[in-house]
Every structure is written in structure tokens, then in C-alpha cells.
Amino acid sequence: MPKHFVRSFTNRVFMVEWTYQGSGEAGVMGMSLKRRIKRAAAWALAFTIAVPFVSFGAAAAQESARETGWYAPKEHAGVDFSQMEYRRYELADMEAAADKLIQAAGTAGGDELVLEAYEELLDEVDRMGTMYSLADIAYSRNMDDQDAADETAYMRTLYPQGTDRAAAAMKAALDTSYGPLLEDKMGRANARSLRYYEELDPVLEKLGEREQQLILEYDQASSAEYRVKADGEDWTYERLAQDLEPYSDQYYEIQNALDRERNKTVGEIYRQLVQVRREIAGECGYDNYADYAYQSVYGRDFTKEDVERIRADVKEIIVPLIVDCWYSDVDYQALYELEPSDAEEILDLMEPYMGRMSGELGEAFSYMRRHGLYDMKQAEAGENRSGGFTTDLPYYGDGFIFLTLEGDYDDYLGVFHEFGHFASIFGDPAPSMFRYGYVDVSEIDSQGMQMLLMHYADEMFGEVGRSVEMEAVSDLLDSIITGAMMDEFETAVYADPDMPLDEMNRLFAAIAEDYGGLYFDYDGENCYGWDMVPHIYHSPLYYISYGTSAFPALRLWIESETDWEGTLDRYMTLSASGSSEPYRKTLRECEIGDIFQTDVLLDLDREIRERLDLPGVETKREAEKGETGIGAALNGNELKPVVRLFLGVAGAIAVLQLMVLCTGFVIIWLLVKDRKR
């Protein structure tokens, strides 16, 4: 068994929407990558069309709550978020609780004392995780607040130390005569995992500290101001966005110069991270960091070779499908008129449908609103807010949604998405010490919620409902494409960890072109956009989770048309599982298909085209034979002027459906993230 390999515990379910917000050089366009492309397409094709006033939010039909019993009983503190106070957590508190358990387990005839000490230690882990979340929420509200940044950095360092102490104490107690008592209390699977646990290796701990230092350097470098000279004048990303018309030759010339300058700094940080991670993998018994991440970090029940086998289908089937979605008859101009005034307008729109889907979802939604367990608003001028995430507040038995709104239709999908995470946290009774977090599963909670709410799209949005539904489908297709694309890049780099930076830029350009060349601009044979995707710095090899989870979410949407209640039951089974089992096993148990089954992307292509009344099933290979115009557009220059990516204020790529979960106290010290964009 490789060093530090234990079935992954999730101490802090910590889900992050990696989009840049804010203003000035420290911020980036809030609009998602995919939406920027489609907005460019809509402007290019239909900018002269007058947009009628769009009304939406028709009253939901009166329908009683659908009574279900999927979530296990769980205590919720019922405390308003405004009353939750951050207090710096001290490692001494965890050490005292750990020592108390060890001492109790060394005393004869003390069953009650042992169980009491065990529960107190679980509470300490919950309290520590909650303080970490509260610190991070404060930082996310103002990423220019140095005190908040320092507190988050402090908790990031302390958290793995605290969980290490707790795990070591529980392991020691299991090895005493009270082992059977504790195993019965915590469950056989948790006890088995703890018995395999190894305390932090000093070498790995040092490597982990170096990794976190480089991540902090990336956070600072990615939000720094970059400046170049052109025609004797100074240019920044902010000035570029304000003073020049996008898509002009001068615009791209200056943008490429800024991108090159940024790449020298943040790209070099990535190169150093790859070196550190090679050492981490080696210390843990792996020849390749990608194998280590797939197996020991994320605990996946599929391999990078499994992902490699589906890439051709993604390129040949899903890429043409998303282009057909973008160029369907959807009225994107009307879609852009959906501009919610604030979060309450979105929540008011959602509320009637939650109980109709499940009484438990309705209860979770009402509880969230009643206790203010969310911060959803637009960034004010000069305000540097984080993008969006859902995090756990385990000491209170609750979750919390943080979301920076953009003031357009995508805010609806963002709130739908995040509430899927919140509901799963709300219904998971496991203490944070034993809350498994298989990321490929947890993303289905959010994306599945987003897609199931499309059942009510016409009721919610009126005549623009089909456009919203098309947008939601495109979101998930985009997740499949970008998930495969980023994973292909990362696995190639970790297979050759000495790869120079200029070779990385050329490699990414070639890979991006293989996926239709839809997402990035190029500087000759180079492409720099990869260096502003935070996942590859903070949580390497995570990105494929967006693709693996998007597929079953799309399956739920397709199946809901003919079996609404059965599909809801399958979704609620998954939501109640707490992401406690790996991807393929979970989907088998929930009777939902997974992306690695034979020919499923072909079937998905056909069913989506039928459902949305898109052109017939076509592949890139068929297009290359001249059977459609899509392939020619993808492989030539026809589509390029329309879909060339405007990187925006800070020149960063705002990625789609980007969320991060901290997975496993065994490796948490390798992966604890903040969300500085």
C-alpha cells in the first residue's frame, strides 16, 4: 500500500466556483469562458436584432410538497449566520482533546469516558473546520483584506496538523481494548481506514509546505498588475479592456504581449509546482504524480487510461454538438435580458419548486433562507470578491453558499448549481471527520440540481425558458470538453515533469486545437490561457471531475422527460449518499449511467439532438468528409472570428463549472486551498 494511502475522509466539504471577480487589474471578467464565446457569437450573428421585453417567473402551479425520506436524521443548530463568530483556532485545543481520548482508552472499565472523549474529539474537528470556513468566507468577501488573508493562511497550515492529531489519537484508541466499542460507534469502514492511517511524514510535510507556498505565490501573481509597452505607451489588462475594441489587430497584439509577460511569472510557478509534486509522488511510492492524484488524492475508481479512451469521442462527438447548441435558434439576446435585481429575486423564483421536487429539498431551502446561510451579491466598484463556492459549517450542522453575482441570466444557473451542494451538505449527518468527498460524485449533486430544475424552465422563465434550458445543457457539454482538455494537458506535463515552460505553451496550443480551437487565443504556436486556470495550481488533476459529473447530470435531465418521479428518486438517492462512495460504484447503485460505458457519448449526442431539435447526429470525422459545415468550421478559420476568446480585464480564463472540494484528511495538507483568483 503506498505511503499515506487511506480511503479518503473529507473533513471539510469545500466546493469552489473558480471564477475571477472584482475590478481593476486584480479582477477578471466574471462571465464564464463558454458564455464569453457564445456572447461573441450572438453579437456577431444577431447584433442588429431588436430585443423585446422578456417577462418570466410565472406563478408555480399549486402543487403539494412531494413527501420523501431520503435524508437521514441530523441535528442543525438553527443559528443565523450573522451570529456565527470566527475565533482563531488553537492547535492546543485539538491536542488536549486527542490526549483525553488516548488517556480514557488506557483506563479500564471506562466505556462511557471513552465514548465521551471520542465525541469531544469529533466536535473539535468540526469546530476547527468551521473556523476555517468562516475565515475563508471573510477573505472571499474582500480578497484585498490582508488580515483576512493571513487568517486563511493560518488555518490552511493548522488544519492538516489538527486532523493529523485527531486521526492518530483515534487510531491509537482503536488499538486498545476499546477498539470494538469505538468501531461499533464509528462504523467498520471508518475504523478500517483509521487503522491504515500513518501520521504525517516529515519529508512529505516539508514538501507540502513548499507546495502551499508556491500556491500562495501563484495567488498573488495571478492577481498582480502586468504592464507592457506598445508604440511607446504603457498597457495593462485594464487599459486594454477600456481603450481598445476587441478583435482588432492591435488589441490582440497587446493582449498577447501581456499574456506572455504574465506567463513568464505564473507559468514558472507551475513548473516549480510540477517538480515538487513529482517528489511528493515519489515519496508516496508512485512514479507519476497523475497516478498518485487519481488514486491516493481523489480515490477514483477509474484511471487516467480510462479518461484517455474517451477523449476521441469528446473531440469528435461533443465538440460538434456544443457548436450546434451555440448556433441553434436560441434567442441569446432575450436570454441576456434576464437580469435579476438581487439574490432574493432568484431565491423567490426557486422556492416554490423545491418542495415540489422533494419535501426535504424544500426544508433545506427554507432553512437556508431563514438563517441567512448565503452571501450572494454583485461586487461593488473596486471590491475584490471571490467567485463562488459552497462550504461546510460542520459545528453547526450546516452549509453556506458564497456567490458573486454577475447581474445576468447565468446567476440563475449559478444559484441552482450551488444549492445542489448545499442540500447534500444539509442532509449528510456524518461528522466532518468521516465525511467522504469523492469529487466526481459531489459535482453531480450540483449539476444534477441545475438540470432537474430545467423541468420547470417554462414555468419559471416563460417564453425564454427554452433558451435557459439550452444554456444549461451547453454548460454541461462545456464541462465535458474542458474537463477532458485540461486533463490531457496535465497528464502530459506530469508524464514529463522536466518540460520547459515554452514547451508547455506549445503543448497546450496543440491540445486546445484538437478540441476545436474554441476556447483560447493563440500567439503563433503558443497558447497561454492554461496558466490562469486555478485548478492546476490548487488541485491538480481535479478538472476531469467536471466532465465525469456532467454526463450523469445530463442523463438525469434526459430521463426526467419520461420518468420525472423516478429520476427525482435517483437524484435524491445520490444527494443523500454524501459522496461517500466513488464515482462508478455510486452511479451503479443509483441506477444512473457513467461516462465510461461503451458508446454512451454517441447515445447522449443523439438524445440531446432529439430533445432540443438540433441537426442530425454528426461527428467531426463525418464533417471532415464534407457532410456538414461544422467540421469545416472547426478545422478551418470560418468560426475563429466569432469564437476567439476575449480574456478581459486581468487576462485570466474564467473557467466553467469550476468547483473544488478538499478531499481527505490523509492528504488534506497537500490540497487545502483558498480561492484567491
Automatic annotation (TrEMBL):
Cofactor dependency: Zn(2+)
Residue span(s) of domain Peptidase M3A/M3B catalytic: 408-597
MF terms (GO), sorted A to Z: metal ion binding; metalloendopeptidase activity
Cofactor note (record): Binds 1 zinc ion.
Transmembrane spans: 645-672
InterPro entries: Pept_M3A_M3B_dom
UniProt keywords, alphabetically: Hydrolase, Membrane, Metal-binding, Metalloprotease, Protease, Transmembrane, Transmembrane helix, Zinc
A single GO BP: proteolysis
Family: Belongs to the peptidase M3 family.
Protein name, as recorded: Oligoendopeptidase
Organism, scientific name: Enterocloster asparagiformis
